[in-house]
Design a protein that fits this description.
Blueprint lengths: L68 H55 L2 H12 L7 E6 L2 E6 L14 H13 L5
Antiparallel strand pairs: 1-2
């Protein structure tokens, strides 16, 4: 039962692994007679005059695929990672933009608060309040000279001593309204 290949289940006698296939027989070319045997004429050596032509169909060699399984798997993992990180990266960038906007608004509010504090300090000064009352509300202090232009005529007098415009202060409001409308139309008083 023993053979040169070895027993079944054991190691072969020549130290090679047994695959279950028939061994390949490599043929060699016969060496021509009358030629001197040298290293270039050995069966495995290449001759300088000939070029080895490889054809993928004739020799049984398979072409290597354009994309290997590992390359496709790596590309898929990179795509999955990119899709997974797209949302958080977008949120991060949106958050940074919002922070910049809020910081700008905060700076504007700080400037506005500083302006309002300065205005409050100015208004707490009695001289500023007096000047604003004279300019905006035409207030005068007792003893100051006041000039008021009414219907194109200048009327002068001391502050607090100007006579009323001739209207009776005791008229009811509706009669006072009608009187002022009549004055505005230019109708003479009755």
């Amino acid at each position: 039962m023993s053979s040169a290949r070895g027993r079944r289940g054991g190691t072969p006698a020549d130290g090679r692994r047994h695959t279950g296939r028939a061994p390949r027989v490599h043929s060699t070319r016969p060496v021509g007679t009358g030629l001197r045997a040298s290293a270039t004429n050995r069966p495995g050596a290449r001759r300088s005059g000939r070029r080895a032509v490889r054809s993928s169909a004739g020799t049984g060699q398979r072409r290597r695929p354009l994309f290997t399984g590992r390359a496709v798997l790596l590309g898929g993992l990179i795509l999955l990672l990119a899709l997974t990180l797209a949302g958080p990266v977008r949120q991060y960038l949106a958050g940074r933009a919002e922070l910049e906007q809020l910081a700008a608004e905060g700076r504007e509010l700080d400037e506005r608060a500083a302006e309002l504090r300065a205005q409050l300090e100015r208004q707490s000064d009695p001289a500023y309040a007096e000047r604003q009352a004279r300019e905006r509300l035409t207030y005068v202090l007792p003893g100051d000279r006041l000039v008021v232009v009414v219907d194109g005529e200048a009327v002068e007098g001391d502050a607090g001593t100007l006579a009323s415009a001739g209207r009776d202060a005791r008229l009811p409001w509706d009669e006072g309204l009608m009187q002022s409308l009549a004055d505005a139309d230019g109708e003479p008083e009755e």
